[in-house]
Amino acid sequence: MTRDGAAMTRRAANFYRSVARRRTVRMFSDRPVPRSIIEKCVMNAGTAPSGANFQPWHFVVVSAPEIKCRIRLEAEKAERQFYGGRAPKAWLKALEPLGTNAKKPYLEIAPYLIVVFQRSYDIDAAGERTKNYYVTESVGIATGILLTALNHVGLATLYPHAEPDGFSAHPPGSPNQ
User: Fold this and answer.
1) 133: which residues sit within 8 A by CB, 6+ positions away?
2) Are strands 113-118 and 174-175 parallel, antiparallel or unpaired?
3) 149: which of 20, 41, 77, 124 fits an S-S bond (Cβ 3.0–4.6 Å)?
4) For residue 96, which phi and psi values (nearest 5 degrees)?
5) Are 115 and 36 in contact (CB under 8 A)?
6) Can you say how many angstroms the Cα of residue 15 is from the centroid of all Cα atoms in its chain?
7) Cα 85 to the chain's mean position, in Å?
8) What's the rounded Cα separation, in Å, for the pair 49 and 44?
């Protein structure tokens, strides 16, 4: 890749135009998306920097309707707790203009959910725990790259705003309108 200032400026401007189109949505199409596209976007996320290059994440792509239904039920249970008293009043007030609530039908409508797991440790060949470093930061960066990659190919995404009890569900997979 060239280090020419004008070319770098063009690439930066083009990238900005691409990411500036990103939107968080809560209404998804059930239109099929080739799984290979989702897998390539997950591969992009796997290039993220991480503490000691340990890559303390695991992405699971879910398309099975029965599993998406179970995820929806658990997500809505967690969200009812969030909206029912767990969230600070200021946070709920900040969410009011978005019209969000505990109902998450899009978790069954979106063609895919990507569940992101973080690993605070791994097990080595001897069966011993090995600590992963900067796990939250590393997983956050990888997830950001995932969301950017999905946007880049023209898919809309939603990153959840609440993760009570460690539950989280990510539904990419609807083409941007």
Assistant:
1) 51, 52, 54
2) unpaired
3) 41
4) -50, -45
5) no
6) 20
7) 25
8) 11
Cβ–Cβ under 8 Å, residues 135 and 19:
no
When the candidates are 3.40.109.10, 3.40.50.300, 3.40.980.10, 3.30.300.20, the CATH number that belongs to 24-175 is 3.40.109.10
Q: Is residue 142 within 8 Å of 57, Cβ to Cβ? A: yes
Number of Cβ within 10 Å of residue 167's Cβ equals 17
* pLDDT at residue 53, rounded to an integer: 94
- Tens-of-pLDDT digits for all 177 residues of the chain? 668 899 999 999 999 998 898 877 778 888 999 999 999 999 999 999 999 999 999 999 999 999 999 999 999 999 999 999 888 999 999 999 988 899 999 999 999 999 999 999 999 999 999 999 999 999 999 999 999 999 999 998 987 754 545 554 444 544 433
H helix intervals, the chain:
5-20, 35-45, 65-81, 89-95, 106-109, 135-152
In whole angstroms, give the CA distance from residue 77 to residue 71: 10
Return the number of other C-beta atoms located less than 10 Å from residue 93's C-beta: 10
Neighbour count for residue 115 (Cβ, 10 Å): 16
What is the Cα–Cα distance from 107 to 101, expressed in whole angstroms? 14
